Amino acid sequence: MKKMLSMVLSASMVLSLAACGGSGKTETTAAPTTPAATAAAQDESAGETGSQAAVSGLDALAPVTLTIYSPGNENSVPTKTILEYKKLVEEASGGKITLDAHHSGELGNDAEALQSARMGTIDIIFAGTSGFTEFYDKAKILDLPFLFDSAEQAYEVVNGEIGEKIFADLPSSGLIYLSEGDNGMRQISTTNRAVHTAADVEGLKLRVPTSQMYLDCWEALGANPVALALNELAIALSNGTAEGQDNATYHLVANATYDDIKYFSFINYMWMGCTMAANADSWEKLPAEYQAILKDQAKIAAKYSFDTIAEDNQAATETLKAAGVEFDENPDIQSFKDKLGGNDYYLRYENEPWYSQEILDEILAK
Predict the structure, then answer these.
(1) CA–CA gap between residue 104 and residue 236 (Å, rounded)
(2) 157-186 burial, b if ≥16 CB within 10 A, otherwise e?
(3) Is residue 155 scored above 70 in pLDDT?
(4) Closest CA to 268 of 325, 337, 219, 314
(5) Residue 193 pLDDT > 80, yes or no?
(6) Is 150 helix (H, G, I), strand (E, B) or coil?
């Protein structure tokens, strides 16, 4: 068919040249068909046939509908990600897999949704990795400070062999690991002082999540961390209960916690993830072909979340600059690492059941 089409197009081009006033002396010489060109055409044809065969190979399988959920609102990155995942999966499966997407608290908050996913009421969940650590403590290794220099590095690590190792035992919690999305690199922003080195946070009343590992880190850096729920942060910054926060750039804008912020420093001290996982029983009922599609497209959707947050961070930076916030683009990150004692800092957790020196070494070697 392609050769016939090529002949027709060649004839059309000759007629077109004549119609456009080409002289009778104009000669049109057909390009010789080389073995390489013939092979390329055959490869392209084979690729198209293989792609069609992959979809048609699903024809014998029964269609399936799976429930997927993100607790966030419709504008949150996790919700945008599951909607992108829905599109990717349905296209890759030729419509054989339908994802019934829900969000905005429809099926409960993070903790409730994770429990529902483990029970099978929800087939696929995409939620903050910190929520998974409540029942799967091996994911706590991702809460250690200064593991990654950037979100880009985090994506490659957590969606590769290392990520698979970290979540290898997740089936014991009733879930199957699919991929790791982004929730942002944590920075530091303050109301009363610029932060360039670790010495600048000495005595700083810094709001952190209610997590012991966050408290440990900032106490070691010499700050006075204050564990507060996110909905208390804006008031705390306003009345001086807190003098700073350790959130990702876009979080300040999305959560409207920047009214009293005057300084922002890109210290990249901790990366936050969002984990996509499937209910183990639902997963085992699926044919291997469906499992492969869901797993492959989950990694693509994860990359979408990283790209989306990168865009949101840039937009948030512009918003904060317009509000008068001063940015330190190149703080002395090494001073923070040195203040913690370098990699020896991690050894304080070596007796914890989730700690793995092998996995930690692999991450730090990247």
Answers:
(1) 26
(2) bbbeebbeebbeebeebbbbbbbbbbbbbb
(3) yes
(4) 337
(5) yes
(6) coil
